[in-house]
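hi!! sorry for the late reply, been swamped w classes. u asked for the two structures so here they r. pasted raw, havent cleaned anything up. first the sequence of the first protein and right below it the tokens
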Amino acid sequence: MLKELVNNEMNLPDLIRAFTEAAMELFPDYYGIKNATAALIGIPNNLDWDGMWDFLADYFRSNHGKEINEYSAKSIKVFSSIRHERFEDGVLTSESEVDRVINITFDNENNILVSIAPSLSPKKAAFKSGSEYKKSYVGFDPDYLFTVSFDDFNEIDSFMLEMPNRKLKIVYYD
């Protein structure tokens, strides 16, 4: 989506070149030929990333309290996890007591946007199945599955991230 917007306005290579030339001129002590070369390669790759718009929307919402989407989310739930368990091939391989902040944006009854700070960039997912206390979602990138468990007060009780292709499951607890 982001790349389409940029391409509609201007030729992308010319835009990137103008950006890098301006940066080298404005900040010669901090932005040199290595940075410009990295930008020439990195900017198109970032714009090609399907999750870039969601990443930016999550960034502005989380860090600045601003919505950059034309719609506002129906519901945002923040789950602060203090520990998690990691399972590989169905076997518990580690338990960690580290803080993780899991942001879940429910944009309608069928879709969510999940990010886990600091380890997972925003991922979209669609509703797969559920009950009153547990809802499962399959990622738009099918490598990801998410399960959200709720308590009696509709607050998040636990959150599970699964990556079936890697036979990995991480369960986050409060």
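now the second protein. again sequence first, tokens right under
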Amino acid sequence: MSFPPTDFLAVILPTLLSAAHLAAVAAVIAIVAVTLATAFLVRVSLHMWKTMRAAEALTETHLDALDARVSRAMANLDPISGHSAELAESLELLQQSVTGLRTLVTSIPRERKRFNRRLLDALLPTDHQDDRTDTAAAFDRHAHAQPDPA
């Protein structure tokens, strides 16, 4: 039993068009899903960077105030009282702690840049070096352009 070519095309062509249509719809859905996921990741990352910057600024402000108070307390120590040596030692330890915390706070931007690069390395393939550099610069510009919420 042989079908004429026109009958064969009449039977198969709608099926092929239907499969192609479904494949096209699936491709569009996949592209939209990837785009939305990427936009979500970028938004979360930018929010995280803004939060970290605000925390840095607040921490630096508190460290400055604490450092000033410790300096004033050390200047106002009464050498006649018997506890001044212990108090001076405690204040020096506190001042060293403030210095250590300040060093830690100043290292946060470096760590943030390192995190940005690792995130972009994970998101972009290695053959897109220029794209990764441009995107990292754009993230940094956007993060620095945001006003501090304080």
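hope this helps!! also noticed smth abt the second:
The mean pLDDT is 77.
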